[in-house]
Amino acid sequence: MSTLVCFHAHPDDECIATGGTIAAAHAAGHRTVLVVATRGERGEVAPGVLAEGEALWERRLAETYAAAEALGIDRVEFLGYVDSGMMGEPTNDGPYTFWTADVDAAAERLAAILREERPDVLTIYDDHGGYGHPDHIQVHRVGLRAAELAGVTNVLQATMNRDHIRTMMEERLAQMEAELANETDTPGETPTDVPDPTETEEFGSPEALITHRIDVIEHVESKRRAMAAHASQIPPDSWFLQLSAEEFAAGFGSEWYIATGEARAVDEPFRTSIWD
Q1: How many other CB atoms are found less than 10 A from the CB of residue 205?
Q2: The three-state (H, E, C) secondary structure of 239-266, written as one string
Q3: 202 and 131 in contact (C-beta within 8 Å)?
Q4: 3-161+204-259 belongs to which CATH class?
Q5: How remote is the C-alpha of 113 from its chain's centroid?
Q6: Burial class (CB in 10 A: 0-12, 13-18, 19+), 270
Q7: In whole angstroms, what is the distance from residue 201 CA to residue 194 CA?
Q8: 274: Cβ–Cβ under 8 A, 6 or more apart, which residues?
Q9: Which of 25, 36, 98, 102 could bridge to 30 as Cys pair (CB 3.0-4.6 Å)?
Q10: Which residues in the chain land under pLDDT 50?
Q11: pLDDT reported for residue 197
């Protein structure tokens, strides 16, 4: 039995970025551990989710444990920092935020868990946190330092395949344009509610930098249940959960990682196991 530790910034990050990997590891009989830096106090809560007087952080703790059950996580730990909010907001510099935490001090908190678990694999985020969130960037910094302190050598940086996302968006846009043209007899008209594929440049990493593509198709339903457990952030009517089974599998059936300190040659295939 091997051990996987996944380090994340906020509740719900674990299922979106690494949920399939976790579920696959659990199904194969490995130990899985989730460490979350903050309680997600700054999240935008869906209307009508919280009970009167209920704090968002309380709900997000409960949601994390429910998602952990869906994924088969054996241990959940919170480092106790405050959610910093989106980059550039005044909350970034608030008291006890993860963004303002001393990297060595925060790393020692994580390293204490790593020493207990002695993981074969630690996942963090890429160097810009996937999309520039301050807490995600800090996960990268703290995670690397904690791995160094605890002697963990296999550190995978969870990311998004920017090229894959752009291709999927372009294909979806072309499909919607064709459907719109058939409905209106106006060829070339562009739907107004579809993101511009060129606006993906700040998301994830270029495919050339990615070393691992983990196929999690067999575990997408576990991933979907875990996402649904985070109802304060991912309500039933969210686009995530409105996708058909086929669309969800296409969008979330692969998880992508960069092996720290390693590169993939141009013609070299992606690695397909986190344990390699």
Answers
A1: 20
A2: HHHHCCHHHHHHHHCEEEEEECCCCCCC
A3: yes
A4: alpha beta
A5: 20
A6: middle
A7: 16
A8: 4, 21, 25, 121, 123, 154, 156, 212, 214, 257
A9: 25
A10: 191-193, 197
A11: 47
Amino acid at 253: G
Which residue ranges make up each domain of the chain? 3-161+204-259, 163-199
- Written as one letter, the residue type at 202 is E
Residue 257, beta-bridge partner list: 158, 212
| Cα–Cα distance, 24 to 244 (Å, whole number) | 22
What pLDDT sits at residue 191?
47
- What CA–CA distance (Å, rounded) separates 98 from 198? 31
Q: What residue type is 170 in one-letter code?
A: E
49 Cβ contact partners less than 8 Å away, ≥ 6 residues apart? 59, 231, 232, 235
Buried b (16+ CB within 10 A) or exposed e, 232-262: bbbbeeeebeeeeeeebbbbbbbbbbbbbee
pLDDT for the residue 188: 54
Q: Which two tokens stand for residue 61?
A: 């703790």
Structure tokens at 49: 């989710």
